[in-house]
Protein: ABC transporter ATP-binding protein
Amino acid sequence: MAPSVALSLPGLRLGGRAVLGAARFDFAGGQTTALLGPSGVGKSTLLRLVAGLMPLPQGARLEASDGGRLAGRIAWMGQQDLLLPWLDLLGNVTLGARLRGRRPDRERARALIASVGLDGREAARPSELSGGMRQRAALARTLMEDRPFVLMDEPFSAIDAPTRHRLQSLAAGLLRGRTVLLVTHDPLEALRLAHRILVLRPAPGGAWPEDHPLPHGVPPRAAHEPALMASQAALLERLAEAA
Ligand SMILES: Nc1ncnc2c1ncn2[C@@H]1O[C@H](COP(=O)(O)OP(=O)(O)OP(=O)(O)O)[C@@H](O)[C@H]1O
Structure:
């Protein structure tokens, strides 16, 4: 089971504006925490702070429960697939190892490619794959990194609804046991995939997190469950109100 992550923030100002308020964020080990909130509230900023892509403000603390550093143990998946157009699928999935000067584990890469339903397409270039296939390739590349912490910034938002649904089910299985932060605008995605939902609510002193209750069951929850549909409506209303 992956360690948990805690981020204590004394607040964060950007461009002269209070973006995030003073808060402590606890992301449980081996679980998926979904972050939702209105556009511009600071979701990606929070993710970037955890990823080390922007400096922590003075007085902030970012810790993993095993006492180790997070740097080097994080896999990132964003809205864009960021596949390199001149590499084939296998080359893209094994890129991380080769950039680090290591010999990639091709067997594992092939198994992951198969697990995202792309077996037989190992030699295809990104331009020969559909948008949904490219996101599946990006998911395989993210998992190839085999990191305990996975940060996902709207990973499936550019994909049609049925493909997104399939990818969510796939991701829930493949991400099991990792500590995942998932930024999404999609209440259904959060309710299907998360063990915990945090809604970032804007406030004059900076946004602060609120827990949103989840229906019973483990991810991936079935979309047709009445309890999930009721939660979806409640979450949508809460997000509309927060905006
Ligand atoms: N480097 C920066 N300098 C100044 N302001 C910034 C910087 N980065 C982000 N911001 C501001 O911080 C706020 C939060 O941005 P962020 O991208 O985290 O929001 P978000 O909740 O992820 O939005 P969206 O849902 O639209 O992606 C925005 O008002 C943005 O303009």
